[in-house]
Amino acid sequence: METVLRIAFIYFFLMIALRAMGKRELNKMSAFELVMLLLIPEFFSQAALREDFSMTNATVATATLLTLVFLTSVVSHMSKRAHEVINGTPTVLVRAGRYVEDNMNRERIAPDELLAEMHKAGYERLEQIKWAILEDDGKISLVPADGEPKPQTHDDDGDPT
Question: Which of 18, 43, 128, 160 shows its CA 20 to 30 Å from the CA of 105?
Fold first, then answer.
């Protein structure tokens, strides 16, 4: 029965703590924030399995981590400079249909990876792309060249989007 109570405590604690962090935190986490939140199971695993009989250590460690993640997001929101330091800045990978090789090398993006993203978006040739930008969340945004129609993409079911 003690195990059930420990698990219930962990469940309700995390439910309240994650809800208190706000919707943005769960919907749009940076890679760093995701890695930090993946530490939570490590904190609670010993307490849940009664290897460490104190739930206090796991609760304090988790509350500290969630507080730091929350404060980092607040600082990032309040300061453009802090946002750039914490999350990085977008990087131009293609300019006017040509690779920006220095940026691609710095970000470790292979031409094949970029071409795959272009093909998924419905583009066939690099010349069809005015800008390809590696966003700070890791996604690649494609802007078609002037006069290029935006290709119609399809979802997983083959339906046009």
Answer: 128
CATH assignment of the domain containing 134: 3.30.240.20
**b/e sequence 42-81, b meaning 16+ C-beta within 10 Å:** ebbeebbeeeeeebeebbebbeebbeebbebbeebeeeee
Give yes or no: residues 62 and 120 share one domain: no
Collapsed DSSP state (helix, strand, coil) of residue 130 = strand
Residues 58 and 52 sit within 8 Å (Cβ to Cβ): yes
Domain shared by 20 and 42, yes or no: yes
C-alpha–C-alpha distance, residues 130 and 149, integer Å: 12
Question: Are residues 60 and 43 part of one domain?
Answer: yes
Task: Write out the E strands in 1-128.
Answer: 91-95, 98-99
Q: Has residue 155 been placed in a domain?
A: no
What is the reported pTM?
0.59
